[in-house]
Automatic annotation (TrEMBL):
Domain AAA+ ATPase: start-end pairs: 37-194
Organism listed in the record: Peribacillus glennii
Name of the molecule in the record: AAA family ATPase
InterPro entries documented for this protein: AAA+_ATPase, ExeA_AAA_ATPase_DNA-bind, P-loop_NTPase, TniB
SUPFAM superfamilies (alphabetical): P-loop containing nucleoside triphosphate hydrolases
Amino acid sequence: MIKDCGDLAFRVDNLYVEHEKILEIYEHLDALPTQQRSRHSFILGGGGVGKSQMAKNYLQRNPGYTIVDEDDNEVDIKPVVLVETPHPFTWKELYYAIFKGLGTTRIPGNVGELKDRMMHLLKKQQVKILIMDEIHNILTSTAVSKKSAMEHLKSISNVTNVSLVLIGTQNAKELRDLDDQYKSRFRVKYLRRFEECDEVFCDFLNAVEKQLSLPYFLGLGNRNSVLPTLLHRQSKGKVGFLIPIIQEAFRLRGIYEEDINDLNDSKITISDLDRAYKIVVGDEETEED
C-alpha cells in the first residue's frame, strides 16, 4: 500500500504491466540464443500497442555486468542490446546506434573501420540478442536497399552469433518476405491491441490498479462500472495510449503538488480521464490496426 503522494507519484511514473502476450514474447526471446534454427525474430504490431516499452523492459530484465579480462581491463558484458534503427538508415548511423547500445562513444572512421569495430565489440561484450526497434525505418531508406540491409544484418549475425530481434510496424514484414531464407530464419510474433472491452482487458486494468497499490478502490477493471468501457474507447485498446491517459489523469489530481495531504484527493474521476484523454490523444482518433 502506498504511504504518501510521493510514493504514488513514483508508482504512476513507473507504471508498466506485463500482460500475457508480453510474457509470451519474453519467453520466445529467452529461447532464441539456444535454438539452432529460427534464431531470429520479427516482433510486429500497430502504433501504440507497446512494442518499444516492451523492448526497454526486456532490456531491464537482462542487465549487463562487468568482468575483468586477461589484460586486467574491465569489460561490460551486455547479453541484450537495444538500438533504435536510424532514420535515415545508413551503414554509419547503424554502427553508431549499436555503439550507443553497447555504451561506447561515437568514434571517427570509415564504414569498413566502424564495421570491424562494431563486430569486435559485439563479440567482446558477449552480446546474445541484438534488438532493433523501429526496423520499418529501413523501408524508407534511399541510401540502402531493403535487400542489402537484410543481407548485412544477416552477416552481422553470422559473424558474431548474435540473435536478431527486429521490432516494427506490421508493414516491416515486407523485409522478411524478401527471401525464403529470411522466412526460414525469422519467426514472426505479433503484439496487438486489446480489440474488445472484454474480460482480458478488464483483467489488465485490474493488474494496473493492483500495481498502483491505491489506498482506495478505484475500479478500473470493474465490469459493473463505466470505467473499462471508457478507457477502451479512449485508448482503442492500445497500451501506448491507455497508460499515459491514466498517468495524466493522476497528474491532474495534483499528485506532484507539495500541498496535497490527503491521498483520497488523488482519486481520479471520469472527468479527469476525459481531460487526460484530450491532453494525451487530442482531438485526433487513434488509427485502427
